[in-house]
Amino acid sequence: MASNNSNISSTSTTEIPCISCSTILDASSSRCYKCGANLRKRPYKSRAGAAVLAILLGGVGVHRFYLGQWWGIFYVLLSWTLIPAIIAFVEAWIFLSTVQRNWDFKHNENKPRGHGDEGITWLVIAAVLGLAVIIVLTIAFKKEVVPALQQHATRAAVSTAIGESRVVQVAVETYFKERGAFPKSYRDLDIDIPQVLADGTEIGIDGEASVVIIFAWPESIKGDVLLLKPKVHGADFKWECVEYSVPKQFWPDSCLAL
């Protein structure tokens, strides 16, 4: 009788019924050979997959979260240092050097890899890496592309304002050619000053007949001033941009040629 109990106990620890069709299976089986039911309580954890995540994203503990280990949060908290990344690199080597049987015992309910297990793992890894790439590209876009676009928009706004100031420039040039001197005030000119553009930017002149552009847009130069100073060389009349409060990085290429 004792022998029978021993056999029953031995059988119960090495064999289990399928949760779907009740077929008797080896306890280490990951899937039922008859109905294909998944016998795992948790998703399969790939040794190579964990190592890849440790190498690429171990600095923020992704490999630990993949293994279902909550202490990956400490990697996140210390991610601003190199410590988690160094630890993760060492852990990747440990993962790869671990015997597969020992790995399955610790992380896979002592069930070896079954059909389809590895594919799901790499699908998860691909999704995680894809998300990481998107995050990196988003950060790079905000750090590099957005400022470049903003600078381009600001340069375009400055160029447009300079072009619109041509009405005032012509009035000053006409006054000088007729009288041989520059106007002392905007009242000496036959145009309405200040000229106000659609975005609120104002164009006028100062006491030295320089064209004054006060920007209302874009936000990067709102309230800043650019001066266009008249230069006479014989019969040639030129306008030179003078740095006042609009940084030169926002000047159009043609600014000094006016």
From TrEMBL:
GO BP term, example: cell adhesion
Subcellular localization(s) per the UniProt record: Membrane
Location of the TM2 domain: 45-93
Top-level taxonomic group: Bacteria
UniProt KW Transmembrane helix keyword: yes
A GO cellular component annotation in the UniProt record: membrane
Membrane topology per record: Multi-pass membrane protein
Keywords attached to this entry: Membrane, Transmembrane, Transmembrane helix
Transmembrane segments: 48-67, 73-99, 120-141
Family stated for the protein in its record: Belongs to the N-Me-Phe pilin family.
Protein name (database record): TM2 domain-containing protein
Species assigned in the record: Marinagarivorans cellulosilyticus
